[in-house]
């Protein structure tokens, strides 16, 4: 694999669209770029599993970002169902606790036992959303202390539950890797190329800074999907990274 393709494979494009027509239009524009595709709640709730299967048939790696967060038994069943779609990455909220995260893993394992042809997805947990600021964490969510400490606390719980990694901001990658080891994966949204609008994100870094921090994957939505020319936007990001 070329270095360029290896770099592209670490970019997860957030297909945050209301319908498959718009998502397919982006796929058309990005044709030939071997990036990961992320399907989140907007597209999945509107279009269901059919589009996820379509992405897999097109050969994409797929992160199904449904952020499961419920009682352990329900999360176990949900994780079991989504593993059967054959996706490459799924996630839960670390705030659900160790038992809930371990239950998710059990649901995944049971799906793999039921269908040994499936590959095991990477299972990760969201620590603190990248839209959460220091003030929100302390005053609204009610967790005292620094955001980075709260993130690392959840990352340790995620590791204890047997999951593969966490979603966090690139600002926390170094601390997570120090606490949980280099093999423990970090998936980082909150990516903003220089000059692009932050929107609702608060803990942000540029793509280059994020990879320099040692993150495994960067998640990028609007800087690509709302660009006048999405292909040019992702090509520029790849150029910056190679
Ligand atoms: O789990 C996620 O992917 C996620 C976690 C998080 O803490 N922050 C976050 O932005 N995301 C997702 O990453 C994507 C970021 O999109 P943009 O802000 O448009 O680049 C969205 O699809 C979010 O749902």
Automatic annotation (TrEMBL):
GO cellular component terms, A-Z: cytosol
GO molecular function, one term: orotidine-5'-phosphate decarboxylase activity
Keywords attached to this entry: Decarboxylase, Lyase, Pyrimidine biosynthesis
Signal peptide region: none
Pathway(s): Pyrimidine metabolism; UMP biosynthesis via de novo pathway; UMP from orotate: step 2/2
Keyword Nucleotidyltransferase included in the entry's annotation: no
Transmembrane segments: none
Record-annotated active site: 65 (for ompdecase activity), 67 (for ompdecase activity), 67 (proton donor), 70 (for ompdecase activity)
Pfam family, one: OMPdecase
Gene3D superfamilies: Aldolase class I
Record-listed E.C. numbers: 4.1.1.23
Binding sites annotated in the UniProt record for substrate: 16, 38, 65-74, 130, 192, 201, 221-222
Highest taxon above the source species: Bacteria
InterPro entries: Aldolase_TIM, OMPdecase, OMPdecase_AS, OMPdecase_bac, OMPdeCOase_dom, RibuloseP-bd_barrel
Catalyzed reaction equations: orotidine 5'-phosphate + H(+) = UMP + CO2
Quaternary context: Homodimer.
Family: Belongs to the OMP decarboxylase family. Type 1 subfamily.
Protein name: Orotidine 5'-phosphate decarboxylase
Lineage of origin: Bacteria, Bacillati, Bacillota, Bacilli, Bacillales
Gene name of the record: pyrF
């Amino acid at each position: 694999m070329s270095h360029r393709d290896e770099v592209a494979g670490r970019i997860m494009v957030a297909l945050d669209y209301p319908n498959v027509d718009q998502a397919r239009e982006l796929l058309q524009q990005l044709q030939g770029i071997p990036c990961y595709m992320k399907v989140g709640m907007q597209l999945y709730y509107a279009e269901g599993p059919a589009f996820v299967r379509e992405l897999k048939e097109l050969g994409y790696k797929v992160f199904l970002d449904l952020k499961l967060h419920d009682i352990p038994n329900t999360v176990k069943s949900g994780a079991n169902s989504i593993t059967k779609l054959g996706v490459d990455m799924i996630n839960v909220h670390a705030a659900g606790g160790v038992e809930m995260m371990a239950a998710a893993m059990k649901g995944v394992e049971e799906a793999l036992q039921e269908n040994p042809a499936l590959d095991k997805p990477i299972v990760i947990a969201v620590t603190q959303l990248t839209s959460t600021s220091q003030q929100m964490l302390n005053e609204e969510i009610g967790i005292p202390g620094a955001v980075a400490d709260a993130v690392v606390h959840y990352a340790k719980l995620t590791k204890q539950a047997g999951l593969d990694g966490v979603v966090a901001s690139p600002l926390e990658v170094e601390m997570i890797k120090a606490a949980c080891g280099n093999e423990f994966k970090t998936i980082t949204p909150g990516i903003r190329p220089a000059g692009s609008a932050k929107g609702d994100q608060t803990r942000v870094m540029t793509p280059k800074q994020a990879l320099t921090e040692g993150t495994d994957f960067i998640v990028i939505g609007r800087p690509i999907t709302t660009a006048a020319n999405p292909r040019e936007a992702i090509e520029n990001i790849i150029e910056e990274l190679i």
